[in-house]
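Milestone 3.1: sequence recovery, worked example.
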């Protein structure tokens, strides 16, 4: 009888204390789960908005650059002659220097542009900042094949690239391809 009495009191005690704790636990888990999902959604939406603004800024910057290159006849001709000649000495030194400085300034003025390459369809060379490089000697020349396969005006591709030809580590880069009027 005593055993039955203590067992019934123990069950009553457990049910009076455990049921509210279990209900509170279930409600807490539900609320915390909902809150975490909302926070994750807000964060992903804000990150997506920042990425969208950065890509819009990048495309508008490239449009400005494209307009500048296509509207400046001396710049246009200097780029074409640098990419077409076997040696850059055949280009007028003032045009060559001015063109390279303009490209380098454009590349370094924007923190989200790490490099800017210019080339023509059949040229073995490309312009990178202040230098003209050949595709055979370049650290990153795989973008040329991607660019030649695409006929669209502008497209993006995420690639793994080396910072220089002596570096063995790869970094992730978003490459923007844009056709210009050459």
């Amino acid at each position: 009888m005593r055993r039955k009495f203590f067992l019934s009191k123990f069950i009553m005690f457990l049910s009076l204390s455990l049921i509210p704790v279990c209900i509170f636990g279930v409600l807490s888990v539900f609320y915390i789960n909902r809150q975490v999902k909302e926070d994750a959604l807000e964060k992903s939406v804000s990150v997506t908005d920042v990425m969208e603004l950065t890509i819009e800024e990048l495309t508008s910057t490239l449009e400005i650059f494209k307009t500048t290159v296509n509207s400046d006849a001396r710049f246009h001709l200097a780029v074409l002659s640098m990419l077409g000649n076997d040696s850059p000495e055949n280009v007028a030194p003032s045009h060559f220097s001015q063109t390279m400085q303009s490209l380098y300034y454009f590349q370094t003025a924007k923190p989200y542009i790490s490099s800017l390459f210019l080339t023509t369809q059949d040229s073995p060379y490309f312009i990178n900042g202040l230098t003209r490089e050949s595709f055979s000697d370049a650290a990153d020349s795989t973008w040329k094949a991607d660019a030649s396969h695409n006929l669209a005006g502008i497209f993006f591709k995420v690639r793994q690239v080396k910072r220089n030809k002596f570096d063995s580590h790869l970094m992730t880069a978003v490459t923007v391809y844009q056709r210009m009027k050459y």
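The first strand starts at residue 117 and ends at 118. The radius of gyration is 31 Å.
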